[in-house]
Every structure is written in C-alpha cells, then in structure tokens.
Amino acid sequence: MKNKKPLLIVLGEPNSIFSELLFKSYRKKIIQKYNRPIIIIGSENLLKSQMKFLKYSIKIKKINSFDFKKFNFNKKYINILNVEYKFKKTFDKISNNSNKYINDCFKIAIKLLYEKSAFALINGPVSKTHFLEKKHLGVTEYLASKTKNKNKPTMLIYNPVFSVCPITTHLPISSVTKNLSKNKIVNDVMNINNFYKNKLNSKPKIAILGLNPHCESIEKISEEKKIIKPAIKSLMNKKIYIKGPFSADTFFSKKNLSYFDVAVGMYHDQVLAPMKTIFNFNAINLTLGLPFLRVSPDHGTNNQMAGKNKSNAQSLISSINFFKKIK
Predict the structure, then answer these.
(1) What's the CATH code of the domain at 27?
(2) Residues 113 and 224 in one domain
(3) What are the contacts of 46-51 at 24+ separation with CB within 8 A?
(4) Shared-domain flag, residues 69 and 175
(5) Residues 102, 222: one domain?
C-alpha cells in the first residue's frame, strides 16, 4: 500500500448527510479494507464536531504536507488534509457561507490529481442552488470548467450490472431539445466506450433511447431523424456496439437490461428515474472525459436528514468498492 497513490474524498457541502455516510463506511470497515490510502479533504474541526454529535468514535490524523510518501497512513484513522471552515452550528441550513470552503477543497484535490500525487476523486454532494449558483448545471460541468477540459464531460450512473447516461443533465425539459446534438451524443458514447474498454477491459453493448414518445413526432422532422439516427450511424462506423433508437417507455424490460450494458437517454429523468427504481442506492455517479476519474455517490445533500443518523451509506460504499476493480 505504501507505493500506491491515495484516493481522495472531498467532503462537499458541510450541512449534508455525507459525514454520516463516511462514519458508517468506517464502522463497516469499508475504508479499512480498501487497498490504497484514502485522504479526506475538508474541515477537521467540523468533522470532529459532527462525529461527536452523531456519536461515532474514529480517530482523526491530520496530514501536514502534500508529500504523501513521508506520511505514515493508518487505515484505522481518518487521514485528513485540513481546510479551514468557520461554522456556528454542527449542522445548519445550507447557504452560500460554505461556497469558498467547498471550492478550496476541490482546488486542493484537482491540484493533487494534476500533479499525479493522487489516484482518483470521490466527492460528497454540493448544493446546485448555493454552490453552483446557476453557473454550472452540476459538479460534472463544474469540474470540467476547473480542469479546462476540451472534450465535454459525460455523466454515467454506473452499476456493474447496468448503467445509464443522460445526454443533457440538469436542464429544464423546455431546454432539452435545443441542447441536443449529434456531436454531443457521439462525444458521450465515445467516452463511455473508452471507459469500459480502458478501465473495465470490456466492450459495452450500448442502447440509444429516442426523445419523443414511441420515437415519433407530429413535427415533419423529428429529433430521432435529425439528430439521434445520424449519431447512431456515425458511431456504428467507429465500430461501437450500438443499437436504437428505442422507445423509452418500453425499453427498461428484463430482457433489455440483461442484454445491454448501458442505456443512453436524451434527458436526466428519462434514464435516472428507472435506474434509481431498479437499483435504489446501489449506483454511483461517474464523470468521464476528465484528466482523472471522478466518482460521486448518487444522492444529494439531503439537508433535512442531516444530523439524524438515519441515512443509507450504500452509495458511498459502492463508490469506494468501485475503485477496487480499477487499475
């Protein structure tokens, strides 16, 4: 383990359920059994306060240098790179007060990843309303802007059995059509195919869903004819295993779920609603196309449940376990 680069975990929004899920992962020895060092990036004082509030007992060890080769990691401890954060309440309502703190945490993580000092990134949830402030649709786009990524990033909601990708992410339905393009579909499918090939050593079977009910439209030229079918043709020419467009209302049958590896939909809820119904908490959010691999548990801040110690840690556990199969 000494020669292995650490996995980074950015705590994200301080007034969320994420610290609770972290403590539960330690209690279940998920982090202790992982074959790399894990470094938490966030406020040491806040984490201690939340641990005491939630009645957990895990020792915290502060990292004082970015030179991890000199640091003696202890898996029984929470090894933390401290980021200063002033707070009045252990758990409070989400506001803009945490914005600088969260940005500072991501800044440190991105620096370490660019310097090849770290292996990959898991981040806790952030508030789209407060932290992203309408500047970015989600953390996927936020990280793309911070890494000056030329290729557009791809959101993949991943489970080892079946995964989904929305071509448009956190957009109002009224904005979906004008944000669809052949190039965006091709970009995302190529990112997915490369991920499966390079990281999972497999060739995925990918299904493309249509936009309109039954892939039909009352308009003369539908999005299926104008955008989706040309994208499929282009991808087939690139030797990608791809079929479609399929009508979304009948696609998520047992037969299709057992045959295909990935379903690519045209908007967020078209694929995430059935995915969460099928797999509940046992899925993770991957950002593909960045200079590094980023994973987030597939849940939000859930501020209403923060401090109640009643949240399910499975998505964070799945996020950590996912990296056991990645080189």
Answers:
(1) 3.40.718.10
(2) no
(3) 46/14, 46/19, 46/85, 46/87, 46/90, 47/11, 47/19, 47/78, 47/80, 49/87, 49/90, 50/19, 50/20, 50/90, 50/91, 50/307, 51/19, 51/23
(4) no
(5) no
Residues 271 and 314 in one domain: no
Would you state the structure tokens that stand for residue 196, as one six-digit string?
């499966």
Residues 279 and 15: their CA atoms lie apart, in Å, by 26
145 and 163 assigned to the same domain: no
Residue 285 domain-assigned (yes or no): no
| pLDDT for 151 | 66
CA distances to 25, 29, 51, 228 from 283, rounded to whole Å, are 16, 20, 26, 27
Is the pLDDT at 137 greater than 80, yes or no? no
User: How many CB atoms are closer than 10 A to CB 296?
Assistant: 26
If asked whether residues 2 and 134 sit together in one domain, one would say yes
pLDDT in tens, 37-91: 899 999 999 999 999 999 999 999 998 877 776 677 888 889 999 999 999 999 9
Q: In sequence order, what are the residues at sequence separation of 6 or more whose Cβ sits closer than 8 angstroms to the Cβ of residue 296?
A: 122, 123, 124, 125, 139, 284, 285, 287, 319
Check: CB of residue 5 under 8 Å from CB of residue 36: yes
Whether residue 237 lies inside any domain: the answer is: yes
pTM > 0.90: no
Whether 217 has a pLDDT exceeding 90, the answer reads no
Record the tokens describing residue 55, joined without a space.
């009645």
Do 316 and 269 fall within a single domain?
no
Gap between the Cα atoms of 262 and 205, Å rounded? 7
Phi, psi of 82 (to 5 degrees): -75, 135
- By CB atoms closer than 10 A (0-12, 13-18, 19+), residue 324 is exposed
Domain membership of residue 325 as a residue range? 1-149+290-327
